[in-house]
Amino acid sequence: MYTYNRFMNKDVIIVGAGFAGATIANLLANKGYKVLVYDKRNHIGGNAYDYFNEDGIIIHKYGPHIFHTNFKEVWEYIKQFDEFFPYKHRVLGNIDGTLVPIPFNFKSLELTHSKEEADLIKETIKREFPDKTRVSILDLLNNKNEILQKFGDYVYQKVFVYYTSKQWGIHPDKIDKSVINRVPVILGYEDTYFGDTYQFMPSHGFTRIFDNMLINKNIEVKLNVNIKDHIKFNENKVYIDEEEIKCPIIYTGAIDELFKYTYGVLPYRSLDIILEKLPVTYFQPAATINYPTSELFTRISEYKYFLKQNIQNKTVIAKEYSKAYRLDSKTDPYYPINNEINNAMYARYKSLAEQYHIYLSGRLAEYKYYNMDLTILNAMKLADNIINLLKSKK
Ligand SMILES: Cc1cc2nc3c(=O)[nH]c(=O)nc-3n(C[C@H](O)[C@H](O)[C@H](O)COP(=O)(O)OP(=O)(O)OC[C@H]3O[C@@H](n4cnc5c(N)ncnc54)[C@H](O)[C@@H]3O)c2cc1C
Fold first, then answer.
1. From ligand 1's centre to the CA of 50, what distance in Å?
2. Could you tell me the CATH superfamily of domain 12-86+201-265+333-393?
3. What pLDDT, on a 0 to 100 scale, did the predictor assign at position 9?
4. Over the stretch 72-86, which tens digit does the pLDDT of each residue have?
5. Atom 20, ligand 1: which residue's CA is nearest?
6. Alpha-carbon gap, residue 298 to 345, rounded angstroms
7. Is the CB of 213 under 6 A from ligand 1?
8. Considering only CA atoms, which residue is closest to atom 13 of ligand 1?
9. Residue 106, pLDDT score
């Protein structure tokens, strides 16, 4: 392990100022350790970065972010960095031109079926699932009752198939049915998108949270530095700008990039987020509208909803177009594509990181689809481990 000494008077180096990096930096700095944070972008916040446009409207640069969690410790930790207000996210789906609540609920059922059909389906559901408030589409498709099978198939086709094929860039026929287990149907009129205990938004946007996490005399942040242009690996030693590094390095970016794609390029989905400014007070009746049966984009989010902003005759909407991640174009890796082959490639990179004692944290470095809360929770755990390690070296 380490023969620990400092690099540029720092105890720890962190690559990435998103939730993973900022959490670890903050927790270590609070214990008195000197932390150096690099980020290749010209701002902190990672993919949760937001800003206010010239009209004062909040823009989530890398796509809409809503905070929700069941982890009390994450909520207790994050709420110290700004004021938060209760926010229940509501999503509608444009199904063949009709706007219905998503996840699909009894209201959606009534809006898309005749009264007789809807009543029959509701009665059957109450009989077959007397104690449940939500089931997965798979529960409906696998039910012995034909009415529920048909209803399950309707939701599957209208809510899931085309939307998922746009999202992952695959033909509807090629969609793996096993993943539909994750798609809920609400057995009632509950219309909030997330079911979590803590659902809040930061009153001044997410970037303010990052400012407050990183403003600390023990933290130095260097932006516009891509560590891959500075780091070298040789005979189990790591060098940054030719100096051997003997303090812990925590890396939160894409791991294949760190190791210069030695084992190949890890596949991701990426996004084009197209913003439109419109001279209306509100464009749509909900924060997000999904397009599961039409259009090439997957969804439209109207950012003013996220801060309940009361700005007249001006709004900004964001259309999300999913696309493949390619190294040669200006695309960012967004969603890891976890399958056996890709996970095996990731495992090879992970052992390489272990060989060089580089700690991995976050959605890209761990090649897992983490929401903000799980990213923060895992980063809190890693911070504890690093603190123990540093203590043992003193
Ligand atoms: C479109 C979209 C919507 C989402 N919506 C939600 C939501 O509603 N709720 C929710 O909880 N979660 C949401 N998430 C997930 C959330 O964005 C992540 O959980 C969180 O941002 C992960 O933080 P991170 O620090 O792991 O990664 P990131 O935020 O990606 O931060 C990594 C940082 O490392 C930097 N970096 C990478 N490589 C290098 C390098 N070589 N050198 C220097 N710096 C480098 C990057 O510039 C970046 O700033 C969403 C994600 C996306 C893509």
1. 12
2. NAD(P)-binding Rossmann-like Domain (3.40.50.720)
3. 86
4. 999 999 999 999 999
5. 372
6. 29
7. no
8. 371
9. 98
Q: Which two tokens stand for residue 142?
A: 């696998």
| Residue type, position 283, single letter | F
CB neighbourhood size of 339 (10 A): 10
Listed by start position, the domains of the chain span 12-86+201-265+333-393, 91-186
Q: Taking 60 as the threshold, does the pLDDT of residue 269 lie above it?
A: yes
Q: Which atom of ligand 1 is nearest to the CA of 45?
A: 49
Q: How far is CA 26 from the centre of its chain?
A: 20
Cβ pair 229, 38 in contact under 8 A? no
Is the C-beta atom of 372 inside 6 A of ligand 1?
yes
Q: Is 63 in the pocket of ligand 1 (CB under 6 A)?
A: yes
Q: Is 333 in the pocket of ligand 1 (CB under 6 A)?
A: no
Q: Tell which residue, 109, 85, 111, has the closest CA to residue 98.
A: 111
- Compute φ and ψ for 271, nearest 5 degrees: -140, 145
Q: Is the pTM of this model over 0.90?
A: yes
| Integer Cα distance of 32 and 258 in angstroms | 28
Residue among 17, 11, 1 nearest 375 (CA): 17
The answer to whether 325 and 270 are in contact (CB under 8 A) is yes
